[in-house]
Amino acid sequence: MHHERLQNKYSALNEEHKVYLVQSALSGNIYVQKILDVYNIRVYEYLYRNPVAGIPRLINYYEDGNQLIVIEEYISGTSLQEKIDNSDLSVSDIRSYMIMLCNILNALHSMTPPIIHRDIKPSNIIITSYNYAMLLDFNAAKQFSGQNESDTVLIGTPGYAAPEQYGFGSSSPKTDIYSLGIVLREMLGSITPAPDIAPILHRLNLIAERCTQMTPAARYQSVTELKNAVSQSYYPAQHSTSAAGNSSQYAHHNHDNTNNAANADTAKRAIHDSASRFLPPGFRTRTPWKMLLSSVAYLFIIWLCLSLELENTYGAKLWLERIFCLGMFIFAICCSFNYLNVQNILPLCKSKNRFLHYVGIILLDVAVIFALFVIMFIIESVAFPIK
To answer: Structurally, how many domains does the chain consist of?
Structure first.
């Protein structure tokens, strides 16, 4: 393999993950250099020999001790995560990006053996200035052998990783479909519902729901099937007339009326579905037994906090402390279940390392609870001064 001589790194794109901008000493071209501690070299060997449209071109790769050094094409653009955070997406954008990502994954899954990405998330997707979606970061990727071997180590990102990546099964191409469904759901969540786009949002929400089923068999069975569903969501398949135009004008008119009624009902449901993300943990999936258990748990916590008795504390001061105690419980629950992506406040919560991920959640809980204590102390000092 040709090793192109590079000048020193002159910019760190992500110091924590050892990603740098480097410049070729021969051509002067700018590339991205990654230093990987966890990798599958066979994936990089295959991608080097078989470039895929929509993936940064591999310039070079080589092992250095226990690390893999990867030099790849530099892609300029905006991360999909940034577009979601800024609500800078249209329904047309979402459909286009999903189709582009399906095309990329179809190329990967069609290889021999198939390559599974296993870490699809908005921060690993770059939108170029030409509005093309590019898929990055293959350090979690592996070649699919077809054998039913359960994953023993979580390779991926919590919140985007499929259940089988936690040891409940074996990663397969359907694992990428699950993660892509989560990405679709996040994109849809950044759009403000409106009656004119409500039917499309509803259909896309249903697609995301099928992608993210717990069991792989219940998901779309291929990215081609998923791509077709996304394509039809924007322009739903029209009911064909009977052979040789036998359907009457009356039947056609009746069908249009039925469609209009269905679309009106769909619009209402779409706005309702988009609001689901604001529901408290336990209610977002609308699973009856989860909602029942959550209701019991919430009522118990409310009763526990509002019946709290503190020594030498009475009246308004006691109620203030009860309310703050309830607030602490509520935030702890919201943080643990990542309500409205609250875990994004602390980067440590997004760590791929499971231990660091949970440490981040605990630190975030502690920080907010401490802040609530400080606020309560200030309010009590002003409202109930010591005489």
So the answer is: 3
Verify that 95 and 182 share a domain, yes or no: yes
User: What is the model's pLDDT at position 368?
Assistant: 86
Q: Name the H helices within the chain.
A: 41-49, 80-85, 91-109, 173-189, 198-211, 223-234, 249-274, 288-306, 315-336, 354-383
What's the predicted TM-score (pTM) here? 0.61
Amino acid found at 253: H
Instruction: Report yes or no on 333 lying in a domain.
Output: yes
Same domain for 345 and 294? yes
Judgement on whether residues 227 and 89 belong to the same structural domain of the protein: yes
The helix/strand/coil state of 147 is coil
Residue 111 reports pLDDT greater than 50: yes
Q: What is the pLDDT of residues 349-361, one digit of tens each?
A: 766 566 777 788 8
Q: Which residues, 6 or more positions from 248, have their beta carbon under 8 angstroms from its beta carbon?
A: none
- At 157-206, the pLDDT tens digits run 888 888 888 776 788 999 999 999 999 999 999 888 888 888 899 999 99
Closest CA to 15 of 375, 347, 373, 329: 347
> What's the CATH code of the domain at 217?
1.10.510.10
Query: What is the percent of the chain where pLDDT is above 70?
Result: 77
State whether 57 and 151 are in the same domain: no
CA 176 – CA 28 distance, rounded (Å): 36
Full domain range(s) for residue 51: 11-73
Crossing angle (nearest 10°) for helices 173-189 and 198-211: 150
Tell whether the torsion through CA atoms of 121, 122, 124 and 129 is positive or negative. Answer: positive
CA-CA distance, 256 to 179, in Å (whole number)? 37
Cα-based distances in Å from 151 to 157, 183, 340, 347: 14, 22, 29, 25
